[in-house]
Design a protein that fits this description.
By secondary structure, this protein is of the alpha/beta class. The protein contains 10 helices and 10 strands. Strand 1 and strand 2 form a beta hairpin. Helix 4 crosses helix 5. The termini are far apart. The relative contact order is 0.13. Bound molecules: NADP nicotinamide-adenine-dinucleotide phosphate (NAP). NADP nicotinamide-adenine-dinucleotide phosphate (NAP) binds next to strand 10 and helix 9. NADP nicotinamide-adenine-dinucleotide phosphate binds next to strand 10 and helix 9.
């Protein structure tokens, strides 16, 4: 049994209310997409989980298909929870999702009620949980009526299998419809999960305003662009980096010369600020007041420490913001 330190809620990551809800989320959350699968180092994974929780990171983000192979991140996380955090369930916010392909045939992908319910049951079993705190529709599915997908989410809440529900990567117009349907069903949407980084700012124009108007929180993912917004790719592709791994979702071809040139310019600004590039990239996301939390992925405790330290300097001058925007 892991005994978390009693100081885990003081002088740590800090919390924001999630939209108009009463739920607070840590400003940094830990994502288990990579680094927690069967192919990954389980000792380091457990160390990261313990370190994160001790630093006040109470939110752990999963999905049915996380880990290599699919489902292994939830299973490994469930085992670590059972063995190390059994008495801390009420101090944790655990999320899962369904929407991308998980198993063969017509019921293992998309947004049908059949898929979402079957997948949630599987996720609960893998993690050894009675309920998840947040369940997401992982993506918009144009082949399923939104009423059906949102109806499934609402019923999960009514059945006590999820405390809150959210949507991820929905286009803005479909997100607005989803917010309305969930509200009418009496199970308001808690949160929108979207990609947000210095390199991917699309959500700023429509998704964020729609969420704000509806009192929905926003949680960003891949704010380090899967590690590209760190100093690791400035001089080539290191062994063991996500881009070098055959099972990672980052391809070597994404590390172009043109990108590296831009990263070098960003790195110079980060150094002026006394931050690593990763720290600046995370801190920058909070210049949008509406960001409730960022889900970070890490492959080591050292990275986790580096990223948590990003919160020490969230201040950007207009000149910093302008220069970063230009790059
Ligand atoms: N809703 C969705 O569709 C969706 C999609 C993607 C992600 N997500 C969520 O968001 C989470 C984070 O996504 P992500 O893994 O793409 O996030 P990310 O934070 O952009 O990238 C994480 C990777 O960056 C590298 N890294 C992290 N900190 C570093 C540091 N301080 N210095 C150098 N390198 C560092 C590590 O890669 P190395 O292995 O190279 O060390 C790490 O695995 C996921 O786990 C998942 O929960 C959701």
């Amino acid at each position: 049994m892991h005994i978390p330190s009693e100081s885990r809620y003081t002088d740590t990551v800090g919390y924001n209310f999630c939209g108009k809800s009463g739920l607070q989320l840590p400003r940094l959350s830990l994502g288990l997409w990579h680094n927690f699968g069967d192919v990954d180092n389980q000792d380091e994974a457990l160390k990261m989980l313990k370190y994160a929780f001790d630093k006040g990171i109470t939110h752990f983000d999963l999905a049915n298909n996380y880990g290599t192979p699919f489902g292994s991140a939830e299973r490994n996380f469930g085992k670590m929870l059972h063995d190390n955090f059994a008495s801390y369930r009420d101090e944790m916010i655990i999320s899962s999702k369904a929407g991308h392909i998980m198993w063969p045939g017509p019921y293992g992908d998309g947004g049908s009620r059949k898929y979402l319910f079957a997948s949630l049951e599987q996720s609960l079993k893998r993690m050894g949980l009675d309920y998840v705190d947040i369940f997401y529709s992982h993506r918009y599915d144009a082949n399923t009526p939104l009423e059906e997908t949102m109806g499934a989410l609402s019923d999960m809440v009514k059945q006590g299998k999820a405390l809150y529900v959210g949507i991820s990567k929905y286009p803005e117009d479909k997100a607005r419809e989803a917010y309305r349907i969930l509200r009418e069903n009496g199970t308001p949407c808690l949160i929108y999960q979207g990609r947000y980084s210095i390199l991917t700012r699309e959500i700023e124009t429509e998704v964020l305003p729609a969420a704000a108007e509806n009192g929905i929180g926003f949680i960003g993912f891949s704010s380090l662009a899967q590690g590209m917004l760190s100093d690791k790719y400035l001089n080539g592709i290191p062994e063991n980096s996500r881009a070098a791994l055959s099972h990672g979702f980052l391809r070597k071809s994404q590390i172009t010369d043109e990108l590296v040139e831009r990263l070098k310019k960003l790195n110079a600004i980060a150094l002026e600020r006394g931050q690593t590039l990763a720290q600046m990239a995370l801190a920058w996301c909070f210049h949008q007041q509406q960001v409730t939390s960022l889900i970070i992925g890490t492959s080591s405790v050292l990275q986790l420490q580096d990223n948590i330290d990003a919160l020490k300097n969230l201040h950007f001058t207009n000149d910093d913001l302008w220069r970063i925007g230009e790059i």
